[in-house]
Design brief:
- The chain is of the alpha/beta class and 471 residues long.
- It folds into 2 domains: 6-78 and 387-470, no CATH class; 91-375, Alpha-Beta Barrel (TIM Barrel).
- 36% of the residues lie in helices and 16% in strands.
- It has 16 helices and 16 strands.
- The protein has helices spanning 47-57, 66-70, 120-136, 155-171, 188-197, 209-215, 225-236, 256-266, 281-285, 293-310, 351-355, 375-382, 419-435, 439-447, 449-457, 463-470, and strands at 6-8, 24-28, 31-36, 41-45, 62-64, 91-93, 141-146, 175-182, 200-204, 241-248, 271-276, 313-315, 336-338, 343-345, 362-367, 370-373.
- It has an 11-stranded mixed beta sheet with strand order 12-11-10-9-8-7-6-13-14-15-16.
- Strand 7 (141-146), helix 4 and strand 8 form a beta-alpha-beta unit.
Length: 471
């Protein structure tokens, strides 16, 4: 860092750079990863360069390379809570919370579903409202997502939803975009209907026969593997975009790469999504635990390479988004999610789950009078799109963005990182390094436990925090 230096004069007395708290220095062995998410830029530098950069952001004279000085330019404003008129991210419909499976780790309460089935008129009213809103704001698509339970159990209702979405979209000059989450156990005839009429299906499918049948049996303990394979093959051969979602546990993590290879050769999905199991009473009772964060990061990174060779996108919830974001999930993004009983919420999880965290994510209802929204309640939900204490000085604050508001960054959550935080930090750092052409360094980082855990555990990534620990 001795060549091509540029002298940056001290800032005027009392001024603070707008980006003083949005430039992060992340340790990668003896190097430092400079991450400026609001400018979409970064660099890999030595300690001297970090020190000079810190001097500049503190308003002191500094000498740094021109390329590093350029990192401080053209920042966006930090993402924050939405304001103004509601612009729904999508319309979510839960035809039912019931399910025909008995997944041993399920925390969605499907085994004790009590809300019944959504009435057709509820779905139609919600779809018509969403189409009108999309047209009013000049949108191009009518996005309708189905959740559950197992939404495809309600075949007649799903048929109505599909055809009403297509009709409402046509009436308003919109393109219908239908997506569903599913366990992949519907019958062949309905699977073909879904393959022809939906834009995307996200199939929860944990892998090889012994893993799938242990973790995701049918009710009564019957195996599900053959049914799911049959359905996924139908969708493989249809126009629908196929995503296979793997719930990764400490037990099946060692076979993640092998599973990805099998999925690629047998099913050719567009996307393979990998998410680690949430520790719930159900999962603990089944003897299933989340994987070690470093071991998961290694397994995911290997699987990522295999997917790249196969031309398949790999998904992970906290991966780098295209743009900085203030919230990870539908909460805070004006998603309108309608439960079977007509309640409108910002979250598809069960009401009791988020109420147990002191959250109220309901903000309306669909009834005979139409879609009625409580805009004051919506503003309270929008306000949740702010970083929690442990997120404020983390370099992932605008990518992971705190992860789930119910299971991870709920009000009163611990100030210290948990395992989810640590694996998010490792994977995000590796993605940033790869974007810089430093894929080999990313691989080294994951293999060097000391360097990896130092990065995973750093409590303050801001330049001010760097000075406190290293200045």
């Amino acid at each position: 860092m001795r060549q091509n230096l540029v002298h940056l004069p001290a800032l005027a007395e009392g001024t603070i750079p707008r980006n003083a708290d949005s430039v992060f220095a992340v340790p990668v062995g003896e190097c430092w990863l400079i991450h400026v998410p609001l400018a979409g830029t970064g660099a890999l530098v030595n300690e001297s360069a970090v020190s000079e950069l810190r001097r500049h952001t503190a308003g002191l004279p500094a000498r740094i390379p021109p390329a590093l000085a350029d990192l401080l330019k053209s920042e966006e404003n930090p993402p924050g809570p939405r304001t103004g008129r509601i612009e729904p991210l999508f319309l979510g419909l839960l035809p039912t919370r019931a399910c025909n499976m008995a997944c041993v780790y399920c925390g969605f309460g499907s085994a004790h579903a009590h809300e019944g089935t959504m009435k057709p008129e509820t779905a139609v009213r919600a779809i018509d409202w969403a189409a009108e809103r999309a047209a009013e704001r000049g949108g191009e698509t009518l996005d309708v997502h189905l959740f559950g339970g197992e939404p495809l159990l309600e075949t007649e209702l799903v048929d109505i939803i599909v055809h009403r979405t297509r009709a409402a979209a046509a009436e308003h000059g919109l393109a219908p975009v239908l997506e569903t989450a599913t366990n992949g156990t519907c019958d062949e005839t309905f699977a073909r209907f879904v393959g022809d009429h939906f834009h995307a299906v996200v199939v929860s499918f944990d892998g090889f026969r012994e893993v799938q049948n242990r973790c995701r049996p049918m009710k009564g303990g019957r195996p599900s593997f053959e049914k799911v394979c049959r359905t996924v093959r139908i969708w493989r051969d249809s126009p629908v975009k196929l995503c296979l979602r793997i719930c990764v546990t400490a037990d099946n993590m060692s076979r993640l790469g092998e599973t990805v290879d099998w999925y690629a050769s047998e099913f050719q999905p567009a996307v393979i999504a990998c998410e680690t199991i949430q520790s719930t009473p159900e999962s603990r009772s089944a003897g299933l635990a989340p994987p070690d964060p470093l071991l998961f990061a290694r397994a995911f990174w290997e699987a990522r390479g295999r997917c790249a060779k196969a031309g398949i996108e790999i998904g992970y919830g906290a991966s780098l988004p295209a743009r900085p974001r203030a919230t990870f999930c539908p909460v805070g993004q004006d998603a309108v999610i309608v439960s079977p009983d007509g309640r409108v919420s910002a979250c598809y999880m069960e009401q009791r789950d988020w109420q147990s965290r002191g959250l109220d994510l309901d903000f309306g209802a669909v009834d005979a009078r139409g879609v009625r929204l409580d805009l004051e309640a919506l503003e309270g939900i929008r306000a949740l799109a702010r970083p929690r204490g442990r997120c404020e000085r983390c370099f992932c604050r605008w990518s992971c963005a705190g992860s789930c508001h119910v299971t991870q960054s709920f009000l009163g959550c611990a100030e210290t990182y948990n395992d989810m935080c640590r694996q998010n930090r490792l994977i995000t750092a590796c993605e940033l390094l790869e974007e810089m052409g430093q894929g080999q360094l990313a691989a080294w980082l994951l293999e060097d436990r000391s360097a990896a855990m130092r990065l995973a555990s750093e409590r303050d990534d801001t330049l001010a925090g760097w000075e406190a620990h290293h200045g």
